[in-house]
Amino acid sequence: MSDKRNIIIGVIIFILLMTIPIWLNLATGTSTERPELEKPKGDACVMDKEYMTSYHMDLLNEWREEVVRNGEREHIAPDGKKYDRSLTNTCLDCHPSKEKFCDQCHNYLGVKPYCWSCHIVPEEFK
Amino acid sequence: MSIDRRNFLKLAGLGTVGLAASPAIDLFASVKVPEVSKKSGKRWAMVIDLPKCHSEKDCTSCVDACHKTHNVPDFGNPKDEIKWIWKESFHGAFHDVGHEHLKEDILHGPSIVLCNHCDNPPCVKACPTQSTWKREEDGIVMMDWHRCIGCRYCVVACPYGARSFNWRDPRQAENMKDINLDYPTRMRGVVEKCTFCEELLAKGKLPSCVDACKAGALTFGDLNDSHSKVRELLENNFTIRRRPGLGTQPQIYYIV
Q: Is residue B15 domain-resident?
């Protein structure tokens, strides 16, 4: 018996094991593509799109701090438009479906913001 | 890199010039940065006219308006009760002020009570997370529900029973089916209380209880403004406050 054969079989098994996540994904139909998001209302978000995609949680923290602790309720967007710093009344005004917008990404990433225990999602009360 | 004596002296000299010039620099700074714009120098307070209040028999307008505006849950039992503004017996509210021969209607009528927005609030001292604090700009004793960890020290510290703890998920209450979409609810495990409607004041509106009172018994205004309605009422009527001996300096005044 030659060692060469065993080594090759070993390497193949190793590669298969290491790539299990990919096979599983293919088999169950989940993919690594970006989830489909509901089209927002309006022309622009309250900050640049790139900033919003990556840092909206920081912006929300800032809003919360400014409103509750400093009483500063006005946000000025890069395009000069003024917005009330409010999670329900502003974000969900242009992104009316939390389920079809926010949750799409969050579920996919396994993030579960606890904000909605208190902040109201209007579509859930209809 | 080492520093030789000559360079040391040069730097020291520069530092001295900097120090000498600093008043001038400050002068420029004060031109650029607007002076503490947020500090309005207000002191919000409320005057409650009890005889006027009693002129509307069995009225609950102020309580209803407040609790509707802020999504305050009603579980229908005293154990789970959450209250921002409510009716107390005169004895309950003023047991150290009154006596048994007081005017009949004052003694036996309800007293409207709410958070006193004390000048010296004991709840603030008790809070370990600064979830509750006194706003410097207008004296409101605020709540930051994002920071509340539900320890209930403030509930114990408040001598007026103005703070309620959410033992249950407030959204399960029957009256929350008719929710006000503009204001968040709270969740199980946090404390809540009246905020003098700071979210309405920010829009230039009056607190919702004041707005709802049919008898005109609730007057809200700025104590630091000598022409305000509250100042006028305080100057022309004899008023009392709840538990004055505690030194909390309540900012809700009662005409009896």
A: no
Is B183 inside a domain boundary? Answer: yes
What residues of chain B, 215 to 254, have a C-beta less than 8 Å from chain A? Answer: none
**Across chain B, what does the average pLDDT equal?**
89
pLDDT value of position B98: 82
- How many domains is chain B partitioned into structurally? 1
Contact list, A69 vs chain B (CB under 8 Å)? 142, 144
Q: Closest approach of chain B CAs to the CA of A125, in angstroms?
A: 8
Residue B158 belongs to a domain: yes
Q: Which segment of B9-13, B16-20, B45-49, B74-78 scores lowest on mean pLDDT?
A: B16-20
Contact list, B186 vs chain A (CB under 8 Å): 118
Which residue on chain A is closest to B146 by alpha carbon? A64
Contacts of B187 in chain A (CB under 8 A): 117-118
Residue B183 · residue A56 · CB < 8 Å: no
- Residues whose CB is less than 8 angstroms from the CB of residue B182 and which lie 6 or more positions away in sequence, other chains included: A88, A89
- CATH code at position B109: 3.30.70.20
Q: Which regions in chain A score pLDDT beneath 50?
A: none
Q: Kindly provide the ipTM of the predicted complex, given to two decimals.
A: 0.80
Report which of B237, B232, B213, B208 is spatially closest to residue B221, judged by C-alpha positions: B232
In the predicted model, is pLDDT for residue B24 greater than 50? no
- Residue B81: Cβ-neighbour burial (10 angstroms; 0-12, 13-18, 19+): middle
Question: What pTM did the predictor assign?
Answer: 0.85
* CB pairs A-B closer than 8 Å: 35
User: Quick one: DSSP state of residue B215?
Assistant: S
What is the per-residue pLDDT for B84?
A: 98
pLDDT at B13: 64
Range(s) of the domain holding residue B67: 42-255
Contact A73 B137 (CB under 8 A): no
Q: Of the candidates B68, B187, B181, B168, which has an alpha carbon nearest to the alpha carbon of residue A121? A: B181
**Which of A88, A118, A125 is opposite residue B187, by nearest beta carbon?**
A118
pLDDT at B33: 33
Q: Residue B100: its pLDDT value, please?
A: 87
